[in-house]
Write a structure and sequence with these properties.
This protein is 45% helix and 14% strand. The protein is an alpha/beta fold. Strands 3-4-2-1-5-6 form a six-stranded parallel beta sheet, with helices on both faces. It binds farnesyl diphosphate.
Amino acid sequence: MELEDFAKPGSQEADLLKRIDKKRLPKHIAVIMDGNGRWAGLRKLPRVAGHRAGIESVRDIVESSARLGLEALTLYAFSVENWKRPRSEVRTLMNLLKEYVRLELSNVHKNNIRFQAIGRIQELEESVRTELQRAMNTTKDNTGMLLNVALNYSGRAEIVDTFNRMFREVKQNGHKAPVSEELISQFLYTSGIPDPDLLIRTSGEMRISNFLLWQIAYSEIYITPTFWPDFRRKHLLEAILEYQRRDRRYGGI
Ligand code: FPP
């Protein structure tokens, strides 16, 4: 996918794109998509209308990120804690996910994007797992951007799963060299993917909400008041521009 016709000449997007240094793009962006409920509330609509509207933002941000040439985009779609929501809302979210995967798969595949679901996927209902598996199988050999969708995800649960996988490996194949950060990273759900350079959270909350706890150790955090259903490529470009203004020191001076 090319950057051409990414933005209409003279548009705000075109201007932002011009100001972005294409050689210093983040490799991996992670997004906490928040504010769907409040977006709907402001319009006197049911919360699920906000989730439905949020799908348009997912489409736009996935396409924009792939066009920019990111290595990976990770979207927080459903947390382990989200099961506490009313059953009807959980059902709608699961249906929207299936719908997104079903309707977007050909587009995702055409754009050379590799789809991956991360989280405790085995606990999701079968119809959701089937749809996710189909998308993962269809796109497994794609060489473009990796689209990670975090589902039934919790950062602490991921660390627990990581340790259990390591212990299993030790039991089967004997003791591996001393435990190191690199070794732990190899057993995470995100094994092989660079850590996020940029973490975006929409709707203004100043929280991490149990997302990618290990991986965001040195991520730049960008919080925007924009609600997720209003978040479009213009906002993504603004976040990248802000990221490029930051001075990443990784604890040095
Ligand atoms: C947070 O808003 C959003 C979610 C819990 C769900 C995000 C899911 C989608 C946008 C749809 C499916 C995703 C994909 C990848 C196809 P909130 O409900 O917590 O909003 P609030 O804080 O304003 O109540």
